[in-house]
Amino acid sequence: MRRLLVGLVSCLIAAGSAAAEESEIIKWKDVDGWTVASDTSMEGSCFISSVFDGGVTLRLGFYPKGSESPLYMSFASDDWRSLEVGKEYDLTFRFDKTDPWSASATAAGDASGKFLFVNVTDAEFLTGFVRKRALAIAFEDRVIANLSLRGTGPAADELMKCQRAVDEIIADEGRKSKEKKADPFSAPSEKRSARDPFSL
């Protein structure tokens, strides 16, 4: 798994942001009905996802470091064709029988598929996500998804391991890059190339 992520992160760093324009999913592990993976379009950040009865897909993951929100949650269904990309929808969420809370979800995607995503700013959200048994999502007082959270504990553990591995690899590649720049003989500089045509 780490070897796959090393290749993933190395490619991201070598090719720059252009490489991240097309999303590539690198699987870390499958655990208890959840897939743990890394997304190249989000600088290798890790996420967990699962497909539920009724065809609803739920994904919870980390934003790249430095983002305003630490986490995001997205959900999709082939039946939700009327979603308008860019439009916000007021949804209500509820763990088990706890008090519900409201949040605005933004529609994204294209003709091949649309989904809703919510920025998660509450650091305690992941704790509730792991400890509760179900998550109900409602729109205009109608429950549109009632999702079992079975297996979220082990999945969240692997999510953290995946993200730590990505962070370590990025930091290591960053150190190597700085070391290369510090050595003037590791690669010809622009001035040297201009004076020596054979170095081009």
From TrEMBL:
Keywords: Signal. It comes from the Bacteria. Residues 1-19 form the signal peptide. Residues 173-200 are annotated as: Disordered. This is Uncharacterized protein.
